[in-house]
Design a protein that fits this description.
This protein is of the alpha/beta class and 406 residues long. It has 13 helices and 16 strands. The strands form 5 sheets. Strands 1-11-10-7-6-2-3 form a 7-stranded mixed beta sheet, sandwiched between helices.
Length: 406
């Protein structure tokens, strides 16, 4: 039996009636753009994120670009982010007129390393008499930071927010992979949700994300009412009132059918995230029992991840991918080439060796099947097949004998 990397059919068929009802309603009302359906989803998503406002957008990339623009990043500014992300993170920065500069990631969480951020701000930047912080490598003003909550795990936000505040920088979360992820803030002495920690946050509802549309969609969350109004204008040709354009904006709206479908699916998100966490816990037990030298995904005590992806590391990645493919098991690599080494960013003049933690990770990371409907039996088989490659030097009993199912 094949085990897919991701199953986009089963959850939609389970909700077939609810989802087709949304489409039928749109056909009967002609409400395709904006309106009540969009607003109701926005309200529900804001409340899911424990954030004041959610503003729908046409994609996660649009959402991030709008969030950066609305937060006051100006053309020519530098926005600091990580080289270990999907290219949409840096596309949004560039398309907002700014330019990305990178700091390396933490070896175990794969997210922005707060110490490297501090080091960058203190040693790779200088402060002008005017108080502005300038990047030494580009001579441009540094104004914002975009931490990415990669794989469904938040970045270590307390120290990132602290250093940002110290340098008067805006923090915009790339929460495109982290719907529902939580972070324990020592400063606030409470769990905080992805999307409610920065000045604004971008979410993607690309079909494969934890909350996915049946097409393209995204949203920005923020607690700032003025920012929310600017975001609404930016996504809709710069108008707050039809044909009265206060600024030049974009065609970047969330359409009503996608909003309706997302609202229907949002009711299941908590359940699906719980199922993903259970799958992750089972991978942990199985991998540790198999004793094949492959570590389970790292979960710091301050993190409640939602496992958008389940990522392990192996030096024998190509062999592993090939073996799993022949066994009918789908895998992925997120992502094989760091952003600073992409051809598209030749112009930024980074070199191999600039971000060693990211570069080492990119060569070894492997994403295993992860979706809410993944079964215990499938996971046992996956780990058994993994051990055949990884554990060749280590004799071990089959995983199924050592770990009870369920
Ligand atoms: C998916 C994703 C995006 C972009 O979202 P789209 O909806 O595909 O435009 C941005 N950043 C990260 C980290 C993502 O995973």
């Amino acid at each position: 039996m094949e085990i897919p990397f991701l199953d986009l059919v089963t959850p939609h068929l389970q909700l077939e009636e609810e989802l087709t009802a949304v489409f039928r309603q749109a056909l009967h009302t002609g409400g395709f753009i904006g309106g009540r359906v969009v607003e109701e989803f926005e309200t529900a998503f804001a409340s899911f994120c424990l954030s004041g406002y959610a503003i729908g957008a046409a994609s996660g990339t649009d959402a991030l670009r709008f969030a950066i623009l609305a937060s006051g990043v100006k053309p020519g500014d530098v926005v600091v982010t990580v080289p270990h992300s999907f290219i949409a993170t840096t596309e949004a920065i560039t398309q907002a007129g700014a330019s990305p500069e990178f700091v390396d990631i933490d070896d175990r969480t794969y997210n922005m390393d707060p110490e490297k951020l501090r080091d960058y701000l203190e040693t790779a930047c200088r402060r002008k008499a005017s108080g502005r912080l300038l990047s030494k490598r580009s001579g441009r003003p540094v104004t914002a930071i975009v931490p990415v909550h990669l794989y469904g795990q938040t970045a270590d936000m307390d120290p990132i927010l602290a250093v940002a505040e110290q340098h008067c920088l805006t923090v915009i979360e790339d929460a495109c992979q982290a719907h529902g992820a939580e972070y324990f803030s020592k400063k606030h002495n409470q769990w905080r949700k992805a999307g409610a920690m920065g000045r604004a946050a971008a979410f993607s509802f690309y079909p494969g994300k934890n909350l996915g549309a049946c097409g393209e969609a995204g949203a920005v969350t923020t607690n700032d009412a003025a920012l929310a109004s600017r975001l609404k204008m930016l996504r809709d040709h710069g108008q707050a009132r039809k044909y009265y354009h206060e600024i030049e904006g974009y065609n970047g709206r969330l359409d009503a059918i996608q909003a309706g479908l997302l609202h229907a699916k949002l009711r299941y998100l908590e359940r699906w995230n719980t199922a993903r966490r259970e799958c992750a816990a089972r991978y942990r037990r199985l991998l540790s029992a198999a004793d094949c030298g492959i570590d389970a995904a790292y979960e710091p005590s301050w993190s409640k991840p939602v496992y958008h992806l389940y990522v392990v590391r192996t030096r024998e990645r190509d062999e592993m991918i090939g073996h799993l493919r022949r066994a009918g098991i789908g895998t992925g690599v997120h992502y094989p080439i760091p952003l600073h080494l992409q051809k598209a960013y030749e112009g930024l003049h980074y070199r191999k060796g600039d971000f060693p933690v990211t570069e080492a990770a990119c060569a070894e990371i492997l994403s295993l099947p992860m979706f809410p409907q993944l079964t215990a039996e499938q996971q046992v088989r996956i780990v058994e097949e993994i051990s055949k490659v990884a554990g060749r030097s280590i004799p071990s009993k089959p995983a199924s004998e050592m770990v009870e199912l369920g």
